Amino acid sequence: MQNVYITKIAKFLPNKPISNDEMENFIGMIYNKRSLARRIVLSKNKITCRYYALDEQGNTTHNNAQLTARAIENLTDTNFTTEDIEMLCCGTTSPDQILPSHASMVHGLLKSKNIEIGSFSGSCCSGMQALKFGYLSVLSGNTENAVCTGSERVSRWMLASTFDKEAEKLAALNNDPYLAFDKEFLRWMLSDGASAALLQNKPNGQLSLRVEWIDMSSFANIKETCMYAGSDKMEDGTIKGWSEYQPSEWLDNSIFSLKQDVKLLSSNIVELGVNYLKDIVTKRNLDISTINYLLPHLSSEFFREKIYDSMNEAGLHVPKEKWFTNLTKVGNVGSASAFLMLEELFNSGKLKKGEKILLMVPESARFSYSISLLTVC
Question: Is residue 68 classed as helix, strand or coil in its secondary structure?
Answer without folding.
Answer: helix
